Translation initiation factor IF-3 (Corallococcus aberystwythensis), 225 residues
Amino acid sequence: MPEPPEGPPIVRDQRTNRRIRAREVRVVGPNAEQLGVMSLEAALTRAQADGLDLVEISPMAKPPVCKIMDYGKFKYEEKKKASDAKKKQVVVHLKEVKLRPKTEEHDYEFKVRNVRRFLEEGNKAKITIQFRGREITHKELGSAILDDVVKDLKDVAVVEQNPRMEGRQMFMILAPNPKVAQRARELARQAVEAAAKKQEGRPAVAAAVVSAMAVGNATPIASKE
């Protein structure tokens, strides 16, 4: 029978210790060493001797595979990893920009510049053409404006949703192209890392100030720029 891999996947809400139901289990040691098949009682005794937990990691295997580990520490580290990953995620917003079939040139250019900046930040944009009164009979004007927007932003955007009508409005959705989206994610990651380093440095700075006050018995004075 082939041995299980050294690092089988860990799933949520594993059975641990006395909650494990199998009579026999295949045991992986705390350093990923294969300890073989043994009774549940023997496996629990081995885990307790190491001051660790017995965790069922592959319940569907025959016999189930259990790993000896510090389960509390594992759950804490998993939670911390998930929290760090969440901080590094780029939150994508959808911003709506409204235009009219007869939007003036300077207003059009101003709004397109805003859309470009928004896309470069990794967000998406909904471009809406609003028709009023008899303007609805000239849908081709709205289509022409949307075509112009796509052409003016072709270096940073892709059309995620093609133009379509909804009531008296025509709209499309633009998303940053892969290159722009990747750059936005990288900038967001760098900002998170910089903020984390700044936060880590604050305790050290505070400790240095306290130490200086203790040695010199002086009162720090805030500098003015």
About this structure: Helices lie at 40-49, 71-88, 105-120, 139-152, 178-216. DSSP finds five helices and eight strands in the chain. Confidence is low (pLDDT under 50) at residues 1-11, 212-225. The radius of gyration is 30 Å.
